Amino acid sequence: MASLRAAVLVQTALGDELREANGSLVLATLEARTLRDAAEGAHRRQNEFLAMLAHELRNPLAPISLANAMLVRLPEPSIELLNLHAIIQRQVLHLTRLLDDLLDAARISSGKISLLRSPTPLVDLLRRSVQTVQVRLLERHQQVQLDLPEQLIVDGDAVRLAQVFSNLLVNASKYTGDHGLIRVAARAHDGVAVVTVSDNGAGMDADVLASVFDLFTQGPRALARAEGGLGVGLNVVRNIVELHGGTVVGSSDGLGLGSVFTVTLPLAAEDGVVAVLPGPSPMPASRRILLVEDNPDANDTLTRLLLGEGHLVTSAYDGVAGLALARASAFDVLICDIGLPGLDGYQLITQLRKTSGAHIPFAIAISGYGQVEDRMRAIAAGFGQYLVKPLDADALLALVSSSAVSRFIAAAARPR
Q1: Cα–Cα distance between 368 and 53 in angstroms, integer?
Q2: How far apart are alpha carbons 100 and 104 in whole angstroms?
């Protein structure tokens, strides 16, 4: 009898311990879920903050960039003015690159980066990447040697791959002294394209090599060379390359002995040669343009730029006034900021496209937000093109006067 009572007591004690353990497990699970939700919320707020930060920083960069583009369009600019233009251009490009890298690092970490893949001529892309960083190379009197085959076609996103090789070239230039040498070579090997970007610069020791692609990692920098970065460029390179199914590795024989970065990318499945034929140069065309931009400096500067190219420009500073003008008069092109007071750009274009008789064949959205979903939303709303601030003045002017826009205008003018 005593042994039975003892057994019952033991079983009761075990039951109590089990219930207590289950309770602790439930509490631990709830606590873990709460911590996970808090971490996800903090991560989401961080990405939202970075996107807003980029937008707010791009807004003042936009009129600076446009005003700088106008300097070289002044009649007979002096050598001093051209030198000032070059300095401003370099610094605007540098700030823009820092913003892009920071945002891309946040997008990649949250899984929000996507690729638009197609057969892409690698050699043409590499040449364009070199041109992108040519200004900084010339500034430091650095030479680039190219060892490229006639043609290699990779299956990739041309914009993202251009970012990869531009970042590698910027990195090579940053850690190579004035009058240094940078080499870019490409070849096909076992079904992949192999691209190397090498330099005779500062080199890296084993400790730096082990973490060179980690976020916020920077190589050695002399005090005399104050220009740096955020330590995210190579992290972005690795993630974009890996999204393409490729690899990137860095190597160096040591400090002072230069560095080599090797990228492998899958070749396109088809063996056919992709011909990239230059299109005909668009003839200058005078457009009737409606510009809707609430930033006074950006509005006024862009108006002057467009007027200087022979276009007729009507300006509005908010969405309500812009929509009223678009409904009241005929225009060829709408250039519209997304973040507007009254009506935002999405609302403006949506209501305009629903207005019977409104005549604006082609609409260009401009914004400080550069994520894929922002671009897709703008196109779905009715814009024909989406440009991220700070605007490339030459690219905008070429788009406005392009034969593609002419076709939209001609199609809209045909009787229905």
Answers
A1: 9
A2: 6
Q: Flag whether pLDDT at 257 surpasses 70.
A: yes
Parallel, antiparallel, or unpaired for β 312-316 and 288-292?
Answer: parallel
Burial of residue 36 (CB within 10 Å: 0-12, 13-18, 19+) is exposed
- The reply to whether CATH 3.30.70.20 applies to domain 288-413 is no
139, 90 Cβ separation under 8 angstroms: yes
Other C-beta atoms closer than 10 Å to the C-beta of 237 total: 24
Q: Which residues contact 120 (CB under 8 A, 6 or more apart)?
A: 153, 154, 155, 156, 157, 158, 161, 268, 274
Token pair 């531009």 is found at: 166
Asked: is 118-219+229-266 a CATH 3.40.50.1980 domain? The reply is no
The structure tokens 């260009």 sit at 364
Rounded CA separation 262/356 (Å) = 56
Tens of pLDDT, residue by residue over 183-225, are 999 999 888 999 999 999 888 887 777 778 876 555 555 434 4
Strand partners, 145: 183
Q: Is 338 exposed, middle or buried (0-12, 13-18, 19+ CB in 10 A)?
A: buried
Q: How many CB atoms lie within 10 A of CB 331?
A: 23
CA–CA separation, 301 and 393 (whole Å): 11
CA distances from 207 to 5, 102, 203, 259, 301 (A): 67, 24, 12, 14, 49
Q: Is there a contact between 336 and 348 (Cβ–Cβ < 8 Å)?
A: yes
Q: Give the separation between CA 151 and CA 274, rounded to whole angstroms.
A: 9
Half-sphere exposure of 398 (CA within 13 A, CB side): 9
Strand partners, 195: 186, 263
Contact 161, 154 (CB under 8 A): yes
User: What distance in Å separates the CA atoms of residue 305 and residue 114, rounded to the nearest whole number?
Assistant: 34
Rounded to an integer, what distance in angstroms lies between the CA atom of residue 147 and that of residue 321? 55
Sequence spans of domains, the chain: 118-219+229-266, 288-413
- DSSP states along 220-251: ---TT------S-HHHHHHHHHHHTT-EEEEE
Rounded distance between C-alpha atoms, residue 193 and residue 252, angstroms: 21
Reduced to 3 states (helix: H, G, I; strand: E, B; else coil), residue 356 is coil
Please tell me whether the overall predicted TM-score, pTM, comes out greater than 0.85 for this model.
no
